[in-house]
């Protein structure tokens, strides 16, 4: 029971490092449904392995009614686990969660099969799963990975990367040494919701790449047109749409240098 007490203390203490709204231990104990759910899960988990399985399931059903968090008592959860806001979180029977993991509201650690055995994901240490994200199937999410809000992840995730989108795409690698990571942590604080400020939208990146490609092709066509005119061809005038409306403020498009050389600048030379 002393181990259970130590786990409860650690679950409360970790809240202050991950939620700036937490002001006192009493406030956390009285008003954080995610903390309440984890408290009762730890007791139900012991009941489950003491073979009081029906009692454990019944206890967690009551907890679901009271907190909006559904945790199967057979799930394996490490130390300093924090569920922020809590409502709508579902953690399946064979889910495994490491130490220092954070989940936000609406997260599902679910299965993709009705077959017995390992059906739910395994989360490594230090993982953050953003609001509304779904991590499905017996996949491994590596240590210190980030799952962005509303992402749907059905494939394994490497250590230290950020995944966003449907289906999940890797958008940022966080393979940095521990000294740099600790320094960033001291400056920026907790990386909430699984997406840092420097994690770009993969759709936005694709649009920028396509726009750069179009601009490069346009530059080549202009040079080809100038050369044809220099050789005496008469080309029809075609009004092309302006690309300014396609540009996104988050990234400046790189317009290639289309300045022709001195010979092609003068069509009559």
What is the compact description of this entry?
With 269 residues, the chain is of the alpha/beta class.
CATH architectural grouping of the largest domain: 3 Solenoid
Backbone structural class: alpha/beta
The overall average pLDDT, rounded, is 79
Main β-sheet: number of strands, strand sense, barrel status?
6 strands, mixed
Q: Which strand order do you get reading across the main beta sheet?
A: 3-6-9-12-14-15
Tell me the overall shape: elongated
CATH fold-level topology of the largest domain:
UDP N-Acetylglucosamine Acyltransferase, domain 1
Report how far apart the termini are: 93 Å
The tally of domains stands at: 2
Number of helices: 8
Question: What would your notes on this structure say?
Answer:
The chain has helices at residues 2-13, 15-18, 25-31, 33-49, 53-67, 178-188, 202-230, 262-265, and strands at 70-71, 76-77, 82-83, 90-91, 96-97, 102-103, 108-110, 122-123, 128-129, 134-136, 140-141, 146-147, 152-153, 161-164, 169-173. With 269 residues, it is an alpha/beta fold. The chain has two domains: 2-199, UDP N-Acetylglucosamine Acyltransferase, domain 1, CATH 2.160.10; 204-265, no CATH class. Strands 3-6-9-12-14-15 form a six-stranded mixed β-sheet. Strands 1-4-7-10-13 form a five-stranded parallel β-sheet. The longest helix is centred in the C-terminal third of the chain and has 29 residues, at 202-230. The model is unreliable at 250-256 and 260-269 (pLDDT under 50).
């Amino acid at each position: 029971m002393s181990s259970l007490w130590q786990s409860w203390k650690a679950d409360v203490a970790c809240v202050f490092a991950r939620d700036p709204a937490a002001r006192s231990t009493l406030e956390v104990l009285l008003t954080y449904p995610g903390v309440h759910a984890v408290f009762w899960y730890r007791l139900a988990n012991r009941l489950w392995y003491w073979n009081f399985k029906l009692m454990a399931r019944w206890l967690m059903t009551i907890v679901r009614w009271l907190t909006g968090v559904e945790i199967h008592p057979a799930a394996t959860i490490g130390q300093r686990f924090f569920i922020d806001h809590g409502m709508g979180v579902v953690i399946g029977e064979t889910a495994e969660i490491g130490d220092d993991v954070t989940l936000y509201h609406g997260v599902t650690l679910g299965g993709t099969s009705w077959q017995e055995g390992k059906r739910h994901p395994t989360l490594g240490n230090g993982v953050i799963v953003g609001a509304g994200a779904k991590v499905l199937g017996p996949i491994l999410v590596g240590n210190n990975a980030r799952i962005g809000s509303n992402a749907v992840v059905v494939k394994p995730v490497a250590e230290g990367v950020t995944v966003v989108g449907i289906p999940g795409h890797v958008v940022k690698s966080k393979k940095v040494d521990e000294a740099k990571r600790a320094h960033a942590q001291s400056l920026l604080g907790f990386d909430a919701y699984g997406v840092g400020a420097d994690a770009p939208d993969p759709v936005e990146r694709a649009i920028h790449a396509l726009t750069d490609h179009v601009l490069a092709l346009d530059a080549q066509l202009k040079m080809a047109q100038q050369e044809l005119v220099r050789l005496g061809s008469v080309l029809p005038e075609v009004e092309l749409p302006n690309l300014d409306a396609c540009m996104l403020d988050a990234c400046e498009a790189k317009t290639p240098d289309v300045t022709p050389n001195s010979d092609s600048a003068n069509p009559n030379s």
